[in-house]
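ok trying again, last paste got cut off:
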Amino acid sequence: MALEIDKLGYTPGDEAFRRESLKGTRFEATYAGALSFMRRKYTRDLTGVDIAITGVPFDQAVSHRSGTRMGPEAIRRASAENAWGPVWPWNFDPFDTLAVADYGDCFFDWGRKDDFPAALEKHATAIISQGPEMISLGGDHYISYPLLKAHAKKHGPLALVHFDAHRDVEIDSGGRIDHGTMFGHAVKEGLIDPHHSVQIGIRTTFVGETTMGFRIIYADECHDKSPKELAKIIIDKVGKRKAYLTFDIDCLDPSVAPGTGTPIPGGLSYHQAASVIRALTPVNFVGMDVVEVSPPYDHAEITSLAASALVVEYLCLRAWQKGARGTVMPE
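nice, full thing came through this time. structure:
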């Protein structure tokens, strides 16, 4: 293997720092080296970057088990396993089409919780105002609220494509930093248009909830319909609106993703969720986050691995929208 690598004309290792091009994939040992997301270059120079990956290690809004502050690091680590070439079933490498960089994490003073929302909104604005799209690795689900504020400033009210076990529209008086209430406030503030938004995989309910205009696809409907049927519901609801994808990992069943703060039985398999995302090629996405990965409750890193793979599915979707196509395996 060492001789084969040498023939490629480069010395392998630590592509997170030594990479010269933002595009392409080079072989690197899955068990060694600096762990950026998918071995992309760590940089805050966004020149030529199509998509910037950032971590948001915040878990002070949780209502049950903490630990999601460790999510970004775990997702990056898990991504190394598959950072080596074409992605099945797309059969292409999204990094041949997309210039993707790892921007590092959003930094904030954990002792000043009330300052966090503004810190994250400022962090996100600094990225997307320079042109790149943004993918955020959580962190608990509250982070989507400041992220939506930053994105709405640029794009206007967004359609929300929301995978979750919970709707996160619980009633409160406002101003609380809570991962179960923020989408209700986002609707009231005009950050998202619920009449073009969909919530997928829901299997909880709370007193006083209303649909608020969302199309709610409860978990039983997810299991009764095919992924293509579910995708059509989303595509029809979103229409031509600019859309934001948020994926709470507890949308997946705890047998698939045990490492999360509020696990609810009866969820989707990875295959179901990924198959829906693969079929959303007509949707005009402008940003994405994956949240609620809590490594202390994970087993064999399967939750982190699922989260990292979902981000790669999204990257493949965006690459496909920009013209990437897979090749047929020769006979």
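cool. The mean pLDDT is 91. Residues 302-321 form the longest helix (20 residues).
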